[in-house]
Amino acid sequence: MPNFHTKTLKPLGYPCTYNETTFTYEAHSKRGNTLVMASTQGEQVLIRIQQKEDGVLLVKGDKVTRPTQASFLQKVLIDFRDASEAEEIFTNIEPKKFLHVKHSPYLKEIEFFANHFDVAREIWVEIGFGSGRHLLHQAKKNPHIQFIGLEIHKPSIEQVLKQCELQTIENILVIDYDARLFMEFLPSNVVGRIFVHFPVPWDKKPHRRVFSAAFIEEALRVLHVKGTLELRTDSPLYFEFTFSQMMQLSKADVHVKKNADLEITSKYEDRWRKMEKDIYDVILTNEIEAAPIPKLGRLHFDATVNFAKIRDAFKDELLRGQGFFVHFEELFEINEKSGLIRLSFGANERNERCFIQIQEGKVTYLPETILATKSNVAAHTLIKEWFHGICD
Ligand SMILES: C[S@@+](CC[C@H](N)C(=O)[O-])C[C@H]1O[C@@H](n2cnc3c(N)ncnc32)[C@H](O)[C@@H]1O
Asked: Are 62 and 46 in contact (CB under 8 A)?
């Protein structure tokens, strides 16, 4: 994570622009942390300034708004450092890395899949593509297929985007999104294959696995008839768990293979093979045409709120509902009428981390694309009630 340490930062007059970065506002919390809103090439990034015990300031990107391309964050941090005339005591920013900062046309936001994704072509999905060896190989071999690569590890995403550009591969769309939530965005019966190769085994915390009864159900819905959901794993526990989940379906066509060879091996597979570990494939073929589903909307606030009242009542607190929660973590004040609340909320196992922005009474989520899933809607209702309780 790019960052730098400094003893001083010259105050900026907001809004201001330095190079290609615009700094819109600064907000402060009671814990002594500061956020600066920055934007470059249409992407918003919050810079976080933390006061360390020795009086040194640590300046880095806030995790919630961290851009997928690390080079963007590096550029924003360098512009902030130069605009505020900071003298670095320590930095891990490498200017050479962002000489060619530009958005990849193959990197998509969830908004794209919610509203603009064209499903005319056959779609194949790879979940957790890691180094991308398998995804890139399949995409080159099947140029008529539209691939979607899901990954939550940003350096892997950046690496695959770079390879798409270098090798002129134009049939991969990459998204930085949790695979367990993503399927809800795809229409029914449009996907031919879903690959899940060497997912994190979570042998001690199975509830964190990509596979679950709900995930299998959603995968079957998006697969067309004869489409396949394919797990490849070195973990006997993951294999058994997935197989038994599939056996709970009322009807299932499941094939199992042991130590089958694929045309391409991933870095993980190479490692396990060297260690002579067994590798298991479980392939579930969909037999049923699913009913269409309505598009998922976004969460939003209609009513206005009073920021000063919220600021005065605010404390770090955790509210719990049936299977969901809301954790109000930290409040940042921009001025008497505006500020930000950092929070996490949603299902116990699949929570969202975001900010609520309050500007002149108007309330929005940051990032804006919070899904209206059942548990998110329940948590959002609780948040609105919390606002009403304080403001009305
Ligand atoms: C063990 S690695 C395997 C990578 C690659 N498939 C391979 O075979 O080399 C698992 C990958 O899944 C990604 N991952 C874990 N949980 C995920 C999730 N919920 N959604 C999307 N990707 C996930 C991780 O970031 C990691 O890159």
From this structure: yes
CA 178–ligand 1 middle distance (angstroms)? 10
- Same domain for 281 and 134, yes or no, is yes
pTM for the model stands at 0.76
Q: Which of 62, 79, 98 is the last residue of a domain?
A: 98
Cα 263 to Cα 3, 62, 133, 134: the distances in Å are: 41, 40, 11, 9
Ligand 1 atom having least distance to the Cα of 180: 19
User: 35 by DSSP, 3-state: which?
Assistant: strand
pLDDT number for residue 267: 85
Cβ of residue 268 lying under 6 Å from some atom of ligand 1: yes
First to last CA, the chain: 41
Domain check: are 35 and 82 in the same one?
yes
Q: What does DSSP say about strands 123-127 and 191-197: parallel, antiparallel, or unpaired? A: parallel
Pocket test for ligand 1, best of 68, 125, 129, 274 (most atoms within 8 A of CB): 129
Q: How far apart are CA 362 and CA 318, in angstroms?
A: 24
pLDDT at 98 over 60: no
Examine residue 90 and state whether it is found in any structural domain, yes or no: yes
Please give the single-letter amino acid code of residue 107.
Answer: L
CATH for 174:
3.40.50.150
pLDDT of 99 > 60? The answer is no
Instruction: Judge if the beta carbon of residue 211 lies within 6 A of ligand 1.
Output: no
pLDDT digits (tens, 9 = 90+) for 332-355: 999 999 999 999 999 876 678 999
Give the pLDDT confidence of 243-279 residue by residue, as tens digits: 999 999 999 999 999 999 999 998 889 998 899 999 9
Q: Which domain, by its residues, includes 312?
A: 307-391
Q: What pLDDT, in 10s, does the model give residues 33-91?
A: 999 999 988 888 999 999 988 889 999 999 888 776 677 888 899 999 999 999 989 99
Q: State whether 90 and 215 are in the same domain.
A: no
Phi, psi of 281 (to 5 degrees): -115, 135
If you measure from the C-alpha of residue 129 to the centroid of ligand 1, how many angstroms do you get, rounded to a whole number?
A: 6
Residue nearest to atom 24 of ligand 1 (CA): 128
> Measured from the CB, is residue 271 less than 6 Å from ligand 1?
no
Residue of 136, 137, 152 with the most ligand 1 atoms within 8 Å of its CB, for mutation: 152
Which atom of ligand 1 sits closest to the CA of residue 131? 9
Q: How many domains does the structure of the chain reveal?
A: 3
